[in-house]
């Protein structure tokens, strides 16, 4: 367990709104925070809210139902492009070297390369990081014509469709990649390494950035320390992840192995690296928002 060195507690007014509502996907961030011990002595209450995927999480952020949550760059930019009042507030660099996002085929499938996805039915979430991967595979020519039929499904529906072979492949992310490969005995056809930035972000609502900056800065600093702990204690993280989420132990180990990252503040370099993502969505007709792209990011969030 990590002992987090904290600065002096800010004045009481900084915690006037004493609850931070944090959206999580499949319990991964909550498990990491609790396993590392950085949730001790938090001067405000953290209320965790669970989501199956980034799209509903980001919609909740845009509606002000939650204050912050984790999402891949693809779904974040997709949601920002749809007009949601959200900003990427803290960077999580590529986890697993880009292999945390992948197209997987079911057990027994003869599909072994991206080229063989041509004309196939592929499940993914609309605007998800898996959707972005498919768009990049198409844009680079890795998937040739005829283009595959993309079937937009939430993860639970996509997994069921893959298991029953109603789709030929599933473009998804962790922990679903490991669930499909380790538990489902499927195999990776293509991953996102070298195809896109592969960043994730802690995204915040503009309301939370205005009214809970101290909370957000403290929470992100704690999560940064938790990621450092997780990289050094993968087995311990995997154990609590399996216990809290109910995913099998071997799947949790696979997820933990792809955890390694060093979260950091958003910088101008971060924004430049994401230009290719917004360009991909614009060329596909999914983003038409005309606001300056740098307004999608919060660069001035410092520790409280």
UniProtKB/TrEMBL annotation:
Cross-referenced SMART domains: PBPb (SM00062)
InterPro entries hit by this protein: Solute-binding_3/MltF_N (IPR001638)
Top-level taxon: Bacteria
Domain spans labelled Solute-binding protein family 3/N-terminal: 11-243
Family designation: Belongs to the bacterial solute-binding protein SsuA/TauA family.
PANTHER family, A to Z: ABC TRANSPORTER SUBSTRATE-BINDING PROTEIN, ALIPHATIC SULFONATES-BINDING PROTEIN-RELATED
Designated name of the protein: Alkane sulfonate ABC transporter substrate-bindnig protein
